[in-house]
Amino acid sequence: MMNELQQMLDACNLPAMKVQQVTGGDINEAYLLYNHEQRIFLKLNDAMRYPEMFVREAEGLNALRAAEAFHVPEIIATGVTGTKQFLLLQWIERTQPALQYWDVMGKQLAALHLQKQPMAGWKNDNYIGSLQQKNTEQNNWPLFYAEQRILPLATKLCNSGAFTAKQMQHTEQLCNRIAAIFPNEPQSLLHGDLWSGNHFPNEKGLPVLIDPAVYCGHREMDIGMSCLFGGFDKRFYEVYNYWYPLETLWQQRLQLTQLYPLLVHAVLFSGSYIQEAAAILARFGQ
């Protein structure tokens, strides 16, 4: 491993650095590289198992930066060394959130979503966690959500025996109804994986976004994801709604927007996620 790290440093024209392993999510090896001049965050993963994962992550970070709504880490380099792919990012020190943290977060997400996009999807397929995410562009959000988010994952679960024929029937019935459920809005650029583990306060106590799974789609997808796995502070939703009010009955659509990440978790981790996804399909697909 040290030889591969040194090869990577040499390829990126970086000086000799100390290496300290740090936490970096469920699937990546992560390190702090540092000397007296700079500190760099390094992510490593298998180059064959998850091809171009970090290239796509870098694209997502660049897209969020270009939108000038959120602070994201600067990209230093990405590439492959031996069997490993790597991503080098600006190291941002985590601190305690400022009093206005959630106000800023809500306003910034509204600013991101207000930048309307012509198509659902993205220029490249990418990843959500370790699962490949298909992003073929379409000009119809309900069709995109049905054909590239819900149906492929439900089919995968059915083929593995985790979903029954009845649950697939619910899936197909829901996909036929999606257009009647979502309010008709232009597409927004989405973070795509906006849960509590993918943002943190920087040295000023203000939000930084990491680990995007970007695509363009209905903005309620980010809102729904933010309500999963612990959720965000209520002030976030109040401020977001001030700057970009959500359409009526958005709370009743939350489970539908959460269906995709729950299907992702069902495919990756099984367990109770299968039952949670099946319950949403039964609610909306009958």
Describe the protein's architecture and organization.
The chain is of the alpha+beta class and 286 residues long. The chain has 2 domains: 2-90, Phosphorylase Kinase, domain 1 (2-Layer Sandwich), CATH 3.30.200.20; 101-284, Alpha-Beta Complex (Aminoglycoside 3'-phosphotransferase, Chain: A, domain 2), CATH 3.90.1200.10. 42% of the residues lie in helices and 19% in strands. It has helices at residues 2-11, 53-66, 101-113, 141-159, 165-181, 220-226, 234-243, 254-269, 272-284; strands at residues 18-22, 29-34, 39-46, 75-81, 84-90, 116-117, 126-128, 131-133, 187-190, 199-201, 207-209, 215-217. Strand 10 and strand 11 form a beta hairpin. Helix 4 (141-159) packs parallel to helix 8 (254-269). The model has no long low-confidence stretch (mean pLDDT 94).
How would you summarize the topology of this molecule?
Layout: H1 2-11, E1 18-22, E2 29-34, E3 39-46, H2 53-66, E4 75-81, E5 84-90, H3 101-113, E6 116-117, E7 126-128, E8 131-133, H4 141-159, H5 165-181, E9 187-190, E10 199-201, E11 207-209, E12 215-217, H6 220-226, H7 234-243, H8 254-269, H9 272-284
Antiparallel strand pairs: 1-2, 2-3, 3-5, 4-5, 6-9, 7-8, 9-12, 10-11
